[in-house]
Records
---
Amino acid sequence: MKFPDNIREVIKYRPDYLGFIFYPGSPRYAGDNMEELSILNITPSIKITGVFVNESTDKIQQIASTISLDMVQLHGQEPVADCIELRRSG
């Protein structure tokens, strides 16, 4: 999910999850649209997921807070300690 108009269309079908890629190397990188993503009216029944690759825990937590992520997916070489820290931070 990258473009607000596309996201609004998908929301109409009430998916269980919406995934946003926060890996700058991906063509689906959503990080440039964070302000727009944060104001979308996504129903609480849809879980918003951020997908990260080898990102710092501070950056993940900042993005999670900005757009109210429900969960994160890690797809890199994240150390176990980082995973534990993220889990503890909610």
---
Amino acid sequence: TQMISGIPSFTAAAAEFGIPLVLGDEPLHIYPDIPSEAPCTGGSIVLMKRAANNDNAQKMLAGREIYCAENCGMENQRLFRHIPKEKTGYFTIILAKKMEGSTDQ
């Protein structure tokens, strides 16, 4: 792999997992941290730089497909299909997709 300037980290993470961020007219919601209010329910949610508070993220994103990338594109990259219980590094991104068949709007 190579680093290409201009590729957002959440886009690179989705590519690592081989998943689309959204399909059709689904919305994409990007948060710099866990929002203080409940996040939007429709489409996909991206939480950037999730180094701590993984328990709160798990509660907030319950019922969604979870993809977590730590240090995406770096030598020490780690990919998870869940939110890790252990503390992850500063460059951790959580992608949360609506479950197939879900009626979230």
